[in-house]
Amino acid sequence: xxxxxxxxxxxxxxxxxxxxxxxxxxxxxxxxxxxxxxxxxxxxxxxxxxxxxxxxxxxxxxxxxxxxxxxxxxxxxxxxxxxxxxxxxxxxxxxxxxxxxxxxxxxxxxxxxxxxxxxxxxxxxxxxxxxxxxxxxxxxxxxxxxxxxxxxxxxxxxxxxxxxxxxxxxxxxxxxxxxxxxxxxxxxxxxxxxxxxxxxxxxxxxxxxxxxxxxxxxxxxxxxxxxxxxxxxxxxxxxxxxxxxxxxxxxxxxxxxxxxxxxxxxxxxxxxxxxxxxxxxxxxxx
Length: 286
Hints:
Blueprint: H1 2-14, H2 23-46, H3 51-65, H4 77-112, H5 120-135, H6 138-149, H7 153-177, H8 181-189, H9 194-233, H10 236-245, H11 249-285
Helix pairs in contact: 4-7, 4-9, 4-10, 5-7, 6-7, 6-9, 7-9, 8-9, 9-10, 9-11, 10-11
Family: Belongs to the binding-protein-dependent transport system permease family.
Membrane topology: Multi-pass membrane protein
Transmembrane segments: 27-47, 91-117, 138-162, 200-218, 225-246, 252-273
């Protein structure tokens, strides 16, 4: 320890500047710290953040959460039918929106894939189109379509479909680009044309990934369908918003439990299908 300390003292005496931060670095640190503190303080002030407000909100949340147990159980089949119909509409809305988005995105993805579309300016233009569709949130699309087509699941289906066209097109194009070139070269060597190369070399590699993406997004869209229903796109979200606005919290909590259970089932089913399909294809390729 003494040797190390004496060595440090000697080095400090020989090159003192090496142990002192430059003035510019000190100034940048002070400015960065000041900006962070000022921004954090402004956010807390602008959002009226205070311990008293947090305590008050937690107390109100506790009173709302107290309606969670025991869960409300509807007594007649008519009441259950309304809830089950809402759940079914939400699943159907997610299914149809995902299906429409995937059908339209599939051919568009080939136009945005580097290994299929060599014309860079056209491919990049198509890609920017994908980004533009992905940039608009489903909730905003739903509000627009509700204005155009009226309340109900149709607006939700169109909102999910339009949003998924951009997402699917980008992800499908990346799946196509990431395919191995060896099967492509092999099919070309046998005298196949461009379409035959895509059919027999690119698609067998990309389709399992594309199918996995579709199943995953279907699960995600089931959750999104609930939110779209709250703004008027029908389904279980519409019933949930109705119960909350009427302060019927026991029913609202039961609906939330049913939504969680529904998403859990779809998540498990989607995961089973993804594992089964991709695993089967992997075994086939091997």
